[in-house]
């Protein structure tokens, strides 16, 4: 049986910063890379004020700076944003108010491949972004 979004959200339990042993994702050997957690990504997204959004590059840069790293792993940041988004949607579907879930629509680009994969659908993200004045 596949893991639930809650189980995926809990792993890894702590973020880590490590030095690259070889170049990765356009970064050189010796640079410090942050591997966040779904919880770290969700907490960051929760700090985005209503009516504002962040791009994935902004999210990664902000997280790296906050954890004293040179950059955030682009692969895990994307995966963890999806996990945080799916968990928030699941919570909303179970009756939790939108104001009480992670506002993932502020960080998920409607044109991204991730938006098309999310259980909420692109239309939900578009509607939420419009309601906050992020799209016309």
Q: Give me the CATH architecture, please.
A: Orthogonal Bundle
Number of domains: 1
Average pLDDT for all residues: 97
N-to-C span: 41 Å
The spatial strand order of the largest sheet comes to: 1-2-3
How large is the radius of gyration? Answer: 15 Å
Shape: globular
Helical content band: 40-55%
The total count of helices amounts to: 6
Instruction: Outline the biggest β-sheet.
Output: 3 strands, mixed
Number of strands: 3
CATH class type: Mainly Alpha
CATH level-3 fold name = Arc Repressor Mutant, subunit A
**Portion in beta strands:** 5-15%
Low-confidence stretches: none
Q: Report the CATH superfamily.
A: Winged helix-like DNA-binding domain superfamily/Winged helix DNA-binding domain
List SSEs in N-to-C order. Answer: HEEHHEHHH
| Protein structure class | mainly alpha
């Amino acid at each position: 049986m596949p893991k639930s979004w809650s189980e995926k959200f809990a792993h890894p339990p702590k973020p880590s910063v490590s030095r690259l042993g070889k170049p990765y994702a356009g970064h050189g050997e010796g640079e410090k890379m942050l591997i966040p957690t779904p919880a770290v990504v969700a907490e960051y997204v929760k700090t985005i004020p209503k009516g504002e959004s962040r791009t994935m590059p902004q999210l990664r840069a902000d997280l790296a700076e906050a954890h004293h790293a040179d950059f955030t792993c682009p692969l895990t940041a994307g995966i963890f944003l999806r996990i945080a988004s799916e968990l928030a949607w699941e919570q909303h579907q179970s009756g939790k108010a939108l104001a009480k879930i992670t506002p993932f629509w502020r960080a998920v680009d409607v044109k991204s491949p991730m938006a098309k994969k999310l259980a909420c659908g692109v239309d939900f993200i578009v509607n939420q972004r419009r309601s906050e004045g992020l799209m016309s």
